[in-house]
Amino acid sequence: MVKVRAARRAEAQDLTGLVMRSKAYWGYDADFLAGCAEELRIRADDVPARRIVVAESERGEVLGVASLEGAPPRAVLGLLFVEPSAVGRGVGRLLYRDVLRRAAELGVRRLVIDSDPHATGFYRAMGAVATPPAGRVADPGDPGEPGSGPGGGSALVRFEVAPAPLADWARAWTCGGRAVHLGNVGEFNAQFADATLDREQRPAHHYACLAAFYSPYPAALVLPRAVPRGWTELVCRQLGWTGVEVYDGLLDGDPGLSDAVRARPALAALLTGAGLPLVPWGRTRPFGRLADRPWRAGELRYESKSAAHGLFGRILADGGHPEIVFPRQWRAGGRWAAARILAARTGAGESTVLKSEHGVGGSGTTVVTPARVRAAGGARAVLRRLPRGPLLLEEYVGGSAGGAEVAGGEGPRDVTYDGFVDGAGHVHEVGGAVMDVTDGCYRGATVGPGVVPEWAGKPLLAFGAAVGRELADSGYRGWFDVDFVADGQGRLAPTETNLRLTGPSIAFMVAARLDVLRGAGHLVRIADRVELGARLPEAQLDELCAALVRGCAELGAVFVPAIPTGAFEPAPWLGVLVAARSREVLDAAEALVRAEALAVGAMFGPP
Q1: What is the DSSP secondary structure assignment for residue 324, as one 8-state letter?
Q2: Quick one: which H or E segment has residue 540?
Q3: Counting CB atoms within 10 angstroms of each CB, which of 194, 288, 360, 433 has the fewest?
Q4: Confidence of residue 153 (pLDDT cuts 50, 70, 90)
């Protein structure tokens, strides 16, 4: 295993030799290298002054060298050279990320890199951004321009990156360290007796793969179903993780993952005795037993949509949130009562949202327009097609076709607030996200700078924080989100709370990790379901994911497969994450992923 350590003064001459060998690797001629020698020489006093570090193998071999020069807010990556025999082994990536980490700790906000032309692909892959003008021509006789190519005249390419420490909320979430992630999605859902939730929890066991991303840097993943080894290796490589233990295949059909762990005393002792936070998808009574945390009766009462509606009403009663609109809601005593309410609203030309008390990703939620009621043959006919169980009817909050019309433009229709309540009852704001919702069904979300428009940002954060305070006062501890829809006047209507991790929370975790690895400013999109053109054997799935990594990198984006096990279903699919620093690149990356995933079926079709 390669590690990074501070260089020693006595190594200066040997490090100079490494630098020159690394420079020669690109084919520069002897005259050019001689002209560079003085500029590239490392002196004993340079070692501390230039903050030089080395990458060292387990056998004590020095494989690379890097320096961090200057003082905040601007610093320079002065050296980054790898021993030719170690090229391609991840040494450069390790050194680069170490420099970025140290720069963030020093308070550097702008790291400048003047890259040799041969190294530009590496820095782009690491997330650095070429700055205009893209390069400058070096004077072949000037030893101060080591970027000149054989014979002189090639261009140094300037890159910049914004070093970023781990977000404050992410430090608070897992106490600044790694965590054990428990994929108990099925267990969480099963505690709600709702006809809209799959009793076997088969979809939930797929979504348990999201346990890989319950914090920015896991120590262990505990999963109900077996997952492909190639998937975990790729995710670790993309997110710079090492030493992640995976315990999978713990369940056959039962959704109780926490009890399955407890039934293995050695595993339970290993996971709970390491002194690391134990992070579930959501709180359950069995998880409380596993984690030795008391289970409070009613802890999840605001997971109920009617209870959440009542909570929103109490917050809004004081009139402190003028940009929040509050839709009316009715709890029907039975199907006949629901039919009467729906018929009356249809007669008045009003659309209605039908909701179950609990649901996941829009399950149990149906938007019914007057035209739909008439086409179905009346209100009773509509209701006969819905699952049995408690039913809520809610006023439909209308918006424009493309979203909320604000200041002559259009904005997102569905937004969400994410935050959490820590063990001491303090509320931490994570941020806002834009959701992809079609026909009431959640399909994904996007997080990052500027994603939520300014008109929605302030009221969303203010109301989300108010909900967090109420949840904290009620005794709830853990992650939560508040979902909103926007009306045509740019106001937000809260629709539900989720007292668990969510799709947007996964995107926030990955954004926080990528900002540390690659510099600040990542937009991250999670797409819950990307259709595959065919079921693939595990090896071919690995090949597809590797190709998507390369294709997205060429666009300047990052691809991370999030849910691989859906690929083996009769109707195969993948959950994916894509990241970029602009909306245009993000959209292009998602389009590429969807097209390539669907195209895999072509290999089984006629030539």
Answers
A1: B
A2: helix 538-555
A3: 288
A4: very low
